[in-house]
Amino acid sequence: MDYLNDMKTVWGMEDTPEKIKILERIITGADAHNDVESGMDARDMLIETCLDAGFPKKQLQAFSWLISKWEDEDNDVYIDSEDLLWKYKWISEHVPTFDEVSKAQIDGLLDDMRVKFEQENYSLRPYYKVCTLAAMRMGDVKKAKELFEKWSNTKEDVLNDCTVCERQDKLHYYYFVKDYEAAKKKAKPIIEGKQRCAEVPHLTYGIMALTYLALGDAEMAQQCFDKGYPLVEQQSSLIPPLGQLLRYLVATNQTEKAREVIDTNLEIVLQAEGGLDRLIFLQAAYPLFDREKEADLVEMTEALTAKFDARNENSYYQDCLNAY
Amino acid sequence: MENYSHRFQVNLAGMIDILSNHLYDEKDVYIRELLQNATDAIRARKKIDPTLEGKIHASLTGDNNEKTLILEDNGIGLTEEEVHAFLATIANSSKGEKNFDGESSNDFIGRFGIGLLSCFIVSDEIVMISTSKKDGGTTEWRGKADGTYSVRKIETDTREPGTQVYLRLRAGLEDHPECEEVEYLINTLKKYGSSLESNIIVEINGLEEEINSWTKQFSDKETLFKLSREQIIQYGEYILGTHFQDYFLIENESGRTFGIAYMIPHAVQMNAIRKNTVFLNNMYVTSEANNILPDWSFFAKCVIWTDELQPVASREAFYKNERLTSVADELGVALKKGIETLPEEALMKLLATHYLGFKALASEDAPFLKLIYPYLPVRTLNGEEKLGDIIAKNDVIYYTYSVDDFRQIKDIARSSGITLINGGYSYDSPILAQLSYFVEGTEFVLIQPEEMTDKLRPMTADEEQAYQPILTEMNSMMAEFDTDVLIKHFEPKDLPIIFIHSTATQELRELERAVEETNSVFSDILESIQKEQEPAPLAHLYLNLDNELIKRLFSSGKSVNELSVIVNVLYIQALLLGHYPLKRKEMELMNQNMLRILEML
């Protein structure tokens, strides 16, 4: 059976769209043969691959199958609860980035995550963290502040993210609430190269370029761009930091470089599955769009801004656009 | 005879701790330091005495718990002043550490000091007796692990220049088999000294054995490039423990880094850690170098000799600096050139073993793709074929994006005589897309399944008149399956149906299945996503009016309801043949129709 041969092939592959294509083929093949175990393995790999290669919707789709199998008491294929709940954090983090998903649906999903963490006796700290990140993505400063307190004051356990990711998410929070000094302090070990992990400092430099800019440290801001851009250029899974770095270029009137960044990355941005990823980049590029020749991009930016604000029931993204 | 008593100017205990517990990864590294000192001394003497044959002699003497390791060389030796100088430089050894160039003359004493100190890893007392070529004098140095040492002149007229180091081995060195048995000592000496130009002789039970006489020739570039295939294959087995069948020689632009790239005879994970063996100035550095060759060198295991890279403090790896990056790039160029010059049979074998890695590399590296594309295997209507052979026979080559697309259209493609490659296998479609840019005389065309339907011939006007009303009615029933039914004429005649749909339609099917198969929280979210997506085009079920079954079906005078039972069965059959998992309503349709067929019997 072809899909079993494909399974052997994917083990040796890097996390690329090419790998995703084969994993999807395996899933279809395994399901057609009612091979639950292979279907589960392939989805498990797909969820991890999507984290590096982008495609959060495909990730969500695979996870939704996996979690229903986990819930199904008649399913006799073993699914590791700890691993599943670890991955649940990724799903919960990404769901607010889809403009198609309503606020009630996001709340419903986060609540489902909480219940499952409680049922399995894990700490709710990761839950509060993703809730904080969701509130940030939904532009709700007040709620983010409340949840941040809960996140910070709840005990860690094995499902807690690594210390570097935790640091990254906290400095992001400080940036979001405009406490730039706290963000700078939090980012210090990362900026100095003392702490890193698979996604850090890739995610850090964009936020910090804007943070240093806000603090008036032009030299450090530029350094963040110089170091950060090569890490995120044309990386489908790292569009938000790419957008932040572009925003920095536009804010510092480095128009030529900004245009180059737009041209190099626009294709992967437009293909991004998460509307918020697209919006962050498009808003950053917005002032440079040619109102006539790039009217479609202008329109797309404005439509997405309106859509997210409507979903979030606030004017956060419109304010971001106006603040330029 | 003069006698001095001094203390080291450094915290010796701390330094020994660093040397034995922190600096080095390998416990036997003091042997390398001894060999390095001896080699430096011989190289220095050769500058004034070029005909000298360098010799390093090692022995392990004494009974259990009272063993002594002796290492002796016929190098330039040290004068008493130099003995004092090397001890002084221990405290300031960084100068020498940063330059591991044995050919540069004057700084070898600095490294000598730190190297000798590493012997405290296994010994509490080191005795060195050295006779200098410069003044003919002999000096004895005794160093103790408590931090004291003494130096004295020994009056002797007949002693040949050179240095002897005696290590009184400490008891309880279970982690150091090389201190216990001479066989292990030989292995350690072979590890570090196999490429050294001086002869390394070990005494075993009173007999002398030279341990690097065969291996050292490989480190000389000119000799290496003249050696026979058998010798080089044998060397690979000796040093890497694998019987390789193919290899090529590589060197970088400066020619100061060169070596043997052995082709790994089995498939390896592309993201597996690379391990290459590297000698610096002929001294073994590591068998685990992972940055001296490009990341994509997964298919080769290399033995490299260099004199232009900078080792880290422990001299067990290299600093990742610009030089290392450019050496790795240049060796990458040499590797590609090596692949190019492999005999075709060896190249085919290499590609077959590592095809996935090569395809991944080729999909991102156009020059590499240009090099290997003729040999890449792809799947066509005729099974597996080499791209070069297909290109030689065709001006236009069609390829599909996915295995699914290929499966849908392969029958029509075969009957219409086009050349079709299944581009769904890993990296094939990106590779084929790139080939359009540089393969002259052949066009590569990505074909969507829908595009093949223009090969299907329409019904005649009479047929149209007869069957269109039935079709219209039937299609209104099929609407809920996002599929329409069409009647055509096509080859091959024994094929009753063809089911064609786009990638977008297939993705939507999968999303619908996900909605069906998950809990309410997730199905609700997935449904919202599904609703917002652009509607996917309908799938098409083409019925072949040239096929006996379809012809009889439509001329049987059956009612639309009866006909639709059969068409529905054909639809389900098409899905199953295409290995598409059925959606819930399709499963229901299948069951209902089976019952209706039973009733009709």
List strands and helices in order, with pairings.
The complex is a heterodimer of chains A (324) and B (601).
Chain A: H1 2-11, H2 17-32, H3 36-53, H4 56-71, H5 81-94, H6 103-119, H7 125-137, H8 141-153, H9 163-176, H10 180-191, H11 204-215, H12 218-232, H13 239-251, H14 255-271, H15 275-285, H16 295-312, H17 316-322
Helix pairs in contact in A: 1-2, 2-3, 3-4, 4-5, 5-6, 5-7, 6-7, 7-8, 9-10, 9-11, 10-11, 11-12, 11-13, 12-13, 13-14, 13-15, 14-15, 15-16, 16-17
Chain B: E1 3-7, H1 12-23, H2 29-48, E2 55-61, E3 68-73, H3 80-90, H4 94-97, H5 108-117, E4 123-131, E5 138-144, E6 148-154, E7 162-169, H6 182-193, E8 199-204, E9 207-210, H7 221-224, H8 229-240, E10 247-251, E11 257-263, E12 276-280, E13 283-289, E14 300-306, H9 322-341, H10 344-353, H11 355-364, H12 366-372, E15 377-380, E16 383-386, H13 387-393, E17 396-399, H14 403-416, E18 420-422, H15 428-438, E19 443-446, H16 461-478, E20 483-488, E21 497-500, H17 503-516, H18 520-532, E22 539-544, H19 548-554, H20 560-577, H21 584-600
Parallel strand pairs in B: 2-8, 12-14, 17-18, 17-19, 20-22
Antiparallel strand pairs in B: 1-6, 2-3, 3-7, 4-5, 4-7, 5-6, 8-9, 10-11, 11-14, 12-13, 15-16, 15-18, 21-22
Word description of this protein:
The complex is a heterodimer of chains A (324) and B (601). With 324 residues, chain A is mainly α. Chain A has helices spanning 2-11, 17-32, 36-53, 56-71, 81-94, 103-119, 125-137, 141-153, 163-176, 180-191, 204-215, 218-232, 239-251, 255-271, 275-285, 295-312, 316-322. Helices cover 73% and strands 0% of the residues of chain A. The longest helix of chain A is centred in the first third of the chain and has 18 residues, at 36-53. With 601 residues, chain B is α+β, with helices and mostly antiparallel strands. Chain B has four domains: 12-96 and 107-210, Histidine kinase-like ATPase, C-terminal domain (Heat Shock Protein 90, 2-Layer Sandwich), CATH 3.30.565; 221-341, Ribosomal Protein S5, domain 2 (2-Layer Sandwich), CATH 3.30.230; 346-453, Rossmann fold (3-Layer(aba) Sandwich); 457-501 and 537-600, Four Helix Bundle (Hemerythrin (Met), subunit A), CATH 1.20.120. Helix content of chain B is 42%, strand content 21%. Chain B has a nine-stranded mixed β-sheet with strand order 1-6-5-4-7-3-2-8-9, covered by helices on one side. A five-stranded mixed β-sheet of chain B has the order 10-11-14-12-13, with helices on both faces. In chain B, strands 16-15-18-17-19 form a five-stranded mixed β-sheet, with helices on both faces. In chain B, helix 2 (29-48) runs antiparallel to helix 5 and helix 16 crosses helix 20. The longest helix of chain B has 20 residues, at 29-48. At the A-B interface, helix 1, helix 2, helix 4 and helix 6 of A face helix 11, helix 17 and helix 18 of B. Chain A: It comes from Listeria swaminathanii. Chain A: This is Tetratricopeptide repeat protein. Chain A: InterPro entries: TPR-like_helical_dom_sf (IPR011990). Chain B: Keywords: ATP-binding, Chaperone, Nucleotide-binding.
